[in-house]
């Protein structure tokens, strides 16, 4: 199957999953917040939320292993794929042990003198922390299986597991309303149990489905490959850990200055941003293996073209939904949640803007990683991340409002984007002028025009529901018009048409086969 068609099919599968899971997840969040209350929800975010943080770390490490898997597939080397899996299992077992020990040491100091948690909830918070440790261990050792699934572009399995996870989370949220025991403790325990079960399901499936998933670790062990993967994973782990520590440090800094209610606002902002990014993340999940395999086939031109187009489409996919959401954030939050914690509106808006900036260069990290040389880029990533927390801490010491930390995060995102552009130019031969004109300028112009048009209903419509519908309608209509007129070049329009045609053809085939049978 051609790369464009593979991306189309896999993206279609993942979008079908998204259509089912997004609304389930948002409704589940409403139920959980109502059951726990803002204080306990904030506690879960600052303590148990480290699960989400380390899930991100797991995903980052998975992308490192996936790079080797996809590259070997591009080369057509089956034995090397077996060796990569064996080395990856050993490597991530060692990483899991080190990370768990590190977390336990850090946890002691967090609870002893840093976190601001009410005394009557401290014991529950500590138990939540231990739940997190268990989750982290299993998340890390499952990384090789995630890498195999993504390298094989098995998005159907990803979709099925995602739907199962969303339904189970909704079941847990509903169950909380009937729990007589401590609801926060039950919620944390059930969420970790669900994560571990899903990890085991992935492992069982991969061991039965894929030839490279073999447990003759000694037989397939390759010392040179272990050294190469350890070096790559170490630098990837450095940048991922820097990001992870920094972003979780945001929760701790906010907690120490403003308490758990602000953490609840932060958790809601993360939830909304995560759901808005689902479309772009699904597309990237299908596109990233194509970028790496293109490099494995020594097709640098196709790799850069896929990366450039991926950045643009990823931005369009989030901006299409993000613009009306940013404009109507107060109405959306008041309709979605019963009680909206203070600072939630500004947190959500700034968090979504940050996500939009990230999408402009999001595939360049994959492109640089595909070359196998990420040492210098990872170093500069970490260097930039280091400054966020101390700068924000000093700002709060001088009386800054909580949302200042999100302003700092946006500035950090711009710096990271500049780093990705530079290293894609230096290592991959990116035409920077072409990128700035074809991607950045086009995307910024479209965003400004759509925002100006979508804000006009505020001038003459007072009814909130009618105004919301007008904002969504005008934003969606003019975004599509400007995207076709300004955003996409002729070859990108043809590619988009081909992708949509492939998806529609497969839908028609499924319907025809269903009714003919």
UniProtKB/TrEMBL annotation:
It comes from the Bacteria. One of its GO terms (cellular component) is plasma membrane. Keywords: Cell membrane, Membrane, Transmembrane, Transmembrane helix. It holds the Pfam family MatE. One of its GO terms (molecular function) is antiporter activity. It is found in: Cell membrane. The chain crosses the membrane at residues 12-36, 42-63, 84-111, 127-148, 155-178, 184-205, 313-333, 353-372, 379-398, 404-423, 435-459, 465-488. The keyword Signal does not apply. It is a multi-pass membrane protein. InterPro entries: MATE_fam, Poly_Biosynth_Transport. This is Na+-driven multidrug efflux pump. It comes from Sunxiuqinia elliptica.
